[in-house]
Amino acid sequence: MRLLDITEFYSPFGGGVRSYLAAKTRWLGARPEIAHAVIVSSDRDATETVHRSRVHHVRGPAVPASPGYRLLWRRARIAEIVEREAPDVIEVGSPFFAPWLARGPARVCGARLVGFFHSDERTVWLNHGLQRAPGAARQIADALLTRYLRAVHRLYAATVVTSRTAQASLAAIGLGDTHLIPLGVDTALFCPERRDPAWRREVGAPAHATVALYVGRLSTEKNLDVVVRALPALTRHGVFVVVIGEGHQRARLLALAARHPDRVRVLPFEPDRERLARAYASADAFLAPCPYETFGLAAIEAMASGLPVVASRVGGIVEVVKPELGVLIDAGNVESIANGLTTVTDHLDDYNPQAIAKYARANFSYDVVGRQFSQIYSEVIQEYPR
Which of 113, 122, 123, 272 is 20 to 30 A from 34 (CA-CA)? Predict the structure, then answer.
């Protein structure tokens, strides 16, 4: 089988899709029966080999107010790469230009398109980007977004979603024929054994503090404002917050950390996956306050590292966080996040890191998930022969 991934949801400063592709290339590196290539939007034109996968960077315009994200734009360049790779299946990981740029070359080489619904753009726009817009404007936007998503998904031989929440979102606009496969993580990399007490000293955590970790984009839809407003209550309970990531809220968070070094530390995006795994395993709890996640890959990486999770009661992560794995909170509610996090941190002994990691390994290791994806690709090839 020859497989090609194409996406604009890729940034040198992190993101769930970047993590997904990193785990995927690592897993496919040990499977020579599948030839794999990737096309990602970038600030440069380049090709590199990652494990056995060829990763093609295609230069494109920057997306405003997004840390490192760019659009795929150049039809001829993408057609050239697709022709050279001659894939059987093209997995499309973003809904913007990528589906339309892949459509023509796919027809030429006989490839089948599989859509991966990574991000619920319609929900984000209606409930966040346009939340203060007049009702009529929201209705028009909803109609346009719905029409566009239906057009995109008509291009695909199959559509993959990561959660029942994402499945329901597509079903609500008439796109009910989807395959549910969660995202996978590298559970050999993310594990409790990487815990290192020295990390806590390095980030400046007070000696007896409980460390709550957030890893992800520093953008408004991630609901970090609620965490900021909850800091006084968290500090009273001995909680120290560590934030790792990049985004347009970084300057504001750095200013907060400068004023309250005993409460919060803000670190840059960590490109070294082993150092990131050390950070996860060395914290005490993980924060996932965003209500718009279709899955929440960072939270699964944290669980694989043995951390209980404090997560929004809305979105795909709600399907994962069981009582023995963490606490669910009301999105946007300062009191709820403070109570949820202090409930976890005040009862850390009730959470067994090895048991949490075992749950993640059993359900979200990439070996489990990768086999499910391979099955979908095989079924699409059989159903739509060249």
Answer: 272
Output the six-digit token pair for 88. 């059987």
Helix (H) or strand (E) holding 80: helix 75-85
Cα-Cα-Cα-Cα dihedral sign, residues 240, 243, 249, 254: positive
pLDDT one-digit tens code per residue, 268-315: 999 999 999 999 999 999 999 987 777 888 999 999 999 999 998 888
Sign of CA dihedral 291, 294, 296, 300: positive
Edge to edge, the sheet with strand 112-117 lists: 46-50, 53-59, 35-42, 2-7, 89-92, 112-117, 158-161, 179-180
Query: What tokens appear for 337 in the block?
Result: 């996040």
Taking the C-alpha atoms of residue 131 and residue 119, their distance in angstroms, rounded to an integer, is: 18
pTM confidence score: 0.87
Q: What is the pLDDT of residues 99-149, one digit of tens each?
A: 999 999 999 999 999 999 887 777 766 665 566 667 777 788 888 889 999
CA–CA gap between residue 134 and residue 45 (Å, rounded): 42
What are phi and psi for residue 238, nearest 5 degrees?
Answer: 75, 25
Amino acid in position 156: Y
- For residue 385, the 8-state DSSP code is -
| Structure tokens given for 49 | 């080999």
Sequential DSSP letters for 186-223? -TTTS-GGG--HHHHHHTT--TTPEEEEEES--SGGGT
